[in-house]
Request: fold
Amino acid sequence: MSSKTKIVVLKMKEIIYTAIFIGFAILFITLLMIMFRPRHKETAVSSSAAFVPGVYTASLTVGNRNVNVEVAVDAERINSISFVSLDESVTTMYPLMQPVMNDLAAQILSSQSLEDLSYSMETRYTSQAVLGAIRTAVEKARTE
Reply:
């Protein structure tokens, strides 16, 4: 009986390094799977959302004046967003109103979504107020 017994000597340091390497490999593979999995994110205004065609308005109080935001929609899309007869005194006292509206309207019309809109930090409060009025008008247009 000639059985050859082999003795393998492993240092504890090598075992720890191997375990850490395997842990990092598993973590890396998990992160890759999470990052590259298919996403089914729906936008706020999607093709399944139906609108009652028409022109809808929402009021925005600026100082002591009301400014109306007008949103025109057809059955499937938002066609235009604008201020209705913006008073000259409002544009003088609040010069950011019209540029913010133009910027938000361009983003909304191109993406057909009210989510993930960008605006600068200087205009964040004006943008949030105008976006709130746009949201209100779009919600009036939705059919349930």
Summary: Confidence is low (pLDDT under 50) at residues 42-47. Residues 54-141 form a domain with the Sufe protein. Chain: A fold (CATH 3.90.1010). Residues 95 and 103 are 14 Å apart (CA to CA).
